[in-house]
C-alpha cells in the first residue's frame, strides 16, 4: 500500500451519485489560505526587520491560517489517497516558506557559510574532501555539497539557488517519507498523513532542518532508508527482498556520506528495529525470523559503513564531537549533584519571545508525554499479527521515548545544541506511534458535535506543539530578521565586516591563514575566501585577545602561529562594547567569563597597534586587520598563504 493507492469506494464516489467536489474545495481553501499565510509571514518579517513591533503574533497567524486547514484536509476520513498526497506536498512546500523568506539570497546561519563555501569550492575546483576552515568536519561529508554543486553545474544557476532547489525537494521528501514509513507500519493512509503532520511539529522542522546544512539532506535519506528496510523485511519473495535490501544499503551509504550524526542515529534506529523484531522471532518463531535476519544484516552493513567512513575518511569527527558531549555530561552531573550553577542553563533567559510562546514551549513536552503514554497503552492492548508492523511500532515507541532525556539535557549549555538536534530523530518515533491514537480519537466521534469538539481540541494541541517546539528550538534572532546584533549567528554580518573581508581578499589574496573571532571568521572564511581559526584547547589563539596590554603573549603560541604560517589577525572591537547574544566569542569551550558584561576592554583590543610583531594594515572603526611580523621577534617570516 502506498500514498497513491487506489481509492476505496465511498458513498461520494459510487456511480450514480453526486461527484465528489472535495478536490475543488480543498484546492480553493488551501490556495486562499496559502496566499493569506504567506502575506502574513512576509509582513511579520518586515515588522521584525524594521524593529517596529512584535512579529510573533503575525507570524503564527500566517502559519496557522494555512496549517490548520491543511491538517483538516490531510486527516479527513473521506479524503482520497491522491488528494491526501497533494495536500502533504503543498503542506511541505508551505512550511519551507519561513526559512526561505528568512534568507532567500544567501547564507545566514552559522553552518550555512561553511556549507556554501564547500559547495562553491567543489563547483570551482571539482575536488571533494577539501578541508573547511569554518566547520572542520564539513569537508569529510560531501553528500550535500556535491549534489548542490552538480545542480549548479548542470543548470547554470548560482550555488545558493541550487542549494534552495535541493533543500526544498529534501523538505518535501521528508514529509512524504514519514507518511510512507507510517503506512508501512500501520497500513492506513489516514494514519500515514497524521504521522507526517505530527513529525512536522518537531522543533527542527521549520528552521533548522531547512537550512543549508548536511542534516537537511541526511534526514530524508534516513527516513527513506527506514522505508526500504521495512519493505525488505516484509518482501513477499526473494527478488523483492533483494531489491529493497540493495536500496536500503545504497541509501544507508548516502546517509553516511552526508552527515555524521544522522549516520550514527541511523545505526541506533536500525539496532532498535532489529532487536525488537528479534524478540518477536524468539518468542513466536513466525515470519519474524526472516525479517530479523534481514534487519540485522542491514544494521551490520550500516554499522560497517559508518565505522569505515569515520575511521578511513573522517577521523576528525570523534574529536569534533567529543568536547560537546563531554562538557554536556560534566554540566549535567554538576547540575544534578548540586555543585553550583555552573552546569545549569536558564531557559528563555533574557528572551524577547512572548510569554505565551514560552508557556507553549514548556507545555509541548508534557503533551508529548501524555500522547506517548496513550500510544504505549494502545500498543499493549492491541496485538498486530504482522511481525514487521508490530516490531516497527515497538521500535518507534523506544525511539520516541528518547525524546524525554533530551528534554532534560537541554538544561545544560553544551548539551542544548545536541538535544535540539536529537529531536529530529526522536520525534519520528513519537509521530509514528501517536498517529494511530489521533485517528482512533477521531473515529470515536460519531456525532457532529463530537467531531467538532474532538477535531477542534486536536487542532489546538497541534497549534500548541508547533508554537512551543519551534520556540524551544530556535531563538527569535534565528527566526526573524532585525537590526545588526553582535554575537548572533544570524545578525552579526554587517556591511563593515563584509567590506573588510573583500578588501583583504582583493589586496592580499585568498586562502590566507588568519586569526579571528567566531563572527568575523564566518564572513572572512566564506565571502572572504580565507582560512580562519577561532581557537581551541590545543591552539588557543584567543589568548592573543585575552592578554593584557604590556604583558607578553605566550611564546609557545607565537611560535605556533609562525610555524603554521598564520599571516593576519582580525580584531572586532565590538567585543569590548557588547555582550554576544549566544554568549560565545570564539568557541564553545573558551576560557572567557560570561557574566553579562563585555569580557574585553578596548585597551586589550587596541594593544596590537603598538606590539612590535603586528602591523595595522586596515581600520574601519570596529574592524581592524593586522599583519603578523614574526621576523621582529627573531622568528622566520613565513607569509600567510596556504
From TrEMBL:
Primary localization: membrane
Gene Ontology molecular-function annotations: pentosyltransferase activity
Keyword Membrane: yes
Keywords: Cell membrane, Glycosyltransferase, Membrane, Transferase, Transmembrane, Transmembrane helix
Transmembrane intervals: 24-44, 56-74, 81-98, 159-182, 189-208, 214-230, 242-258, 264-282, 289-311, 359-381, 393-412, 424-443, 455-474
Biological process terms in GO annotation: lipopolysaccharide biosynthetic process
One Gene Ontology term, aspect cellular component: plasma membrane
InterPro entries linked to this entry: LipidA_mod_glycosyltrf_83
Membrane topology: Multi-pass membrane protein
Compartmental location: Cell membrane
Protein name: Uncharacterized protein
Biological source species: Paractinoplanes rishiriensis
